[in-house]
Write a structure and sequence with these properties.
alpha+beta, elongated, 2 domains, YojJ-like (1
Length: 302
């Protein structure tokens, strides 16, 4: 009898709890699930994954300590918790910074509210595409290492400031001369903005992605690093093998053929043209909207 009453009480409590669940509660659960999933996916490609496994081991150890009632270790765990939180933030600072940068890249506001539209960027021309492709495979044949970063929508002024200003038209001869062995500008990356070589000997951030092959050197890791932090397109010519690779959106495509590189660069060109056309249409719409608004205001005044 007492057992049945307890079951009946549990059923009543469940019914009351279920009645208090609202749509916002369901949305909150789904949102939290999505956030946890995204965080776990992000952590798998960074040092945070190793840190998480270490924290799980420590958590199991602390649970065992509480279960066995080891008072001294419990006291130490309580007092060290606040310091551990600060230590994790310090250790994970590069990863947290990268995550915030990725969040900042998302355009959540209409009309490009937080984009810099004051300056129109020069589009990558077909001539420039041909010059870059020719230079890369000419350097690959003689195993001259090269690292070429092509700026797109996101500004690379910070990268440019680490190098030496060139400001020259992109040509096959210029790129080959820059990366020639024992020349003053051969070390580091070349930054291309539009149809001009903006700077040479630029320093790039090195990727900490653990999935990158150990056989790849600093040049390839730097290419992946800049592609993780910006929307730039980076071309790498291996000094050891002469193979041409590209890095874009944090992904490395190795040993590609000339026609594939040309296709990828033409895709960038088409994307830039589409973006420019969309910007022009948005500007026209805003102008017409302003004209219509001024007409309505005049009619209301009359």
């Amino acid at each position: 009898m007492q057992f049945l009453e307890s079951i009946n009480g549990l059923v009543r409590e469940f019914i009351i709890y279920r009645a208090t669940i609202e749509l916002k509660d369901v949305l909150e659960i789904l949102l939290l699930t999505f956030i946890v999933y995204v965080i776990l996916v992000w952590m798998k490609t960074t040092r945070a994954w190793q840190l998480l496994k270490g924290l799980i081991v420590i958590g199991l150890f602390v649970a065992l300590v509480y279960f066995l009632q080891m008072e001294t270790i419990k006291w130490l765990a309580k007092n060290l918790l606040s310091f551990a939180t600060i230590a994790i933030i310090v250790v994970m600072q590069p990863e947290l910074r990268h995550a915030l940068e990725e969040l900042g890249k998302k355009n959540f506001f209409p009309g490009g509210m937080f984009t810099d539209s004051a300056k129109e960027k020069e589009l990558l021309s077909e001539t420039t595409v041909n010059e870059i492709v020719s230079a890369c495979y000419d350097m690959g044949r003689v195993k001259t290492g090269a690292l070429i970063v092509i700026e797109q929508n996101e500004s690379l002024k910070q990268v440019e400031s680490t190098g030496i200003e060139v400001d020259g038209v992109v040509t096959r001869q210029l790129l080959i001369n820059i990366f020639e062995h024992n020349t003053p500008l051969h070390d580091g990356a070349v930054l291309i903005r539009g149809n001009r070589v903006a700077a040479a000997t630029c320093l790039l951030p090195v990727s900490k992605n653990l999935s990158i092959s150990k056989e790849l050197g600093t040049r390839h890791r730097a290419a992946v690093g800049i592609s993780e932090e910006t929307d730039s397109f980076t071309i790498i010519v291996s000094e050891e093998t002469g193979a041409v690779s590209v890095a874009y959106e944090g992904k490395l495509s190795r040993n590609i053929e000339a026609k594939i590189l040309r296709l990828r660069l033409e895709q960038i060109l088409n994307k830039q043209k589409d973006a420019e056309e969309e910007a022009k249409q948005a500007k026209k719409r805003s102008i017409f909207k302003g004209i219509g608004k001024s007409k309505n205001e005049k009619e209301d005044n009359q």
